[in-house]
Every structure is written in structure tokens, then in C-alpha cells.
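quick one before i forget lol
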Amino acid sequence: MDLTSYVQEVSRQDFQKEFRHQAFWNKRLRTTGGRFFPQDGHLDFNPRIYQEFDLATFRKIVAHELCHYHLYYEGRGYRHGDRDFKALLAKVGGLRYAPSLNSDRKSLIYRCKNCKMVYYRQRKVNLEKYRCGRCRGRLERTT
């Protein structure tokens, strides 16, 4: 898929305006569907949104970013909290938030041997150094 031409097509159909810059895939995006860069006008999109969801969802993400783009170049409120942005987004049917992607991060689970308090952590805990915050008991890793 030629991303820039797809964004130009969505812009013509939904906004009746031209998209005059470039659109790129950015695989470093993790929690967002896309980004608009006012400095040079280009758009970045998360390729995982395109791969894991249907084209209709991706089109709504494109519409969201194009709302930022067109409002910025019209000199109107282009930020998420602005009234102009919210009205245009509702008009074109864009998504307010990107759908959540299944993250590859694993959650580590620790449990106190005394009081059975459960702790969820992203990083490993040094079991020799740290104790339970409730009863000062020793911790054990369950998964």
C-alpha cells in the first residue's frame, strides 16, 4: 500500500481538501495510531494498527490525523482539547483514541509468603533485597 496516496485519497473524500505532504510508517510508535508533525507537515502511522485491525479502523485513524493537519493549516484549534478539533473529528467519523494493541510486555507476579499479598511488576525484583510492604515477609515469584 502506498501510504501517502491513501492519505491523499482519504483527505479528498472525507475533507474535500488536498493533503500536500508525506505520510510514513513508523514502527517505533507503541501506544498511538499516528502522529502529526506541525514543523514540516508530515504524518506518521503505526503499522501495527494497519496489520492487526481492519482497513475501516485504519481509515478512522487517518481521519483523526488529517483533522490535526487541516485545522493546523487553517489556523484553527488543532489540539485534542480544542472545540474545532472535536467538531471536525465527529463530522468525519474519526476515532478519538487508538484501539489498544496487545503489548508484548510480560507482567511478573510476586507474592508474599506470609500474608499472600500479590505484586505485579514489569521488572525483576531482587528477592534478597526487597520484602513485602505490608508485613515485611519474604517474596516469591509465582510466574
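fyi The longest helix spans residues 55-74.
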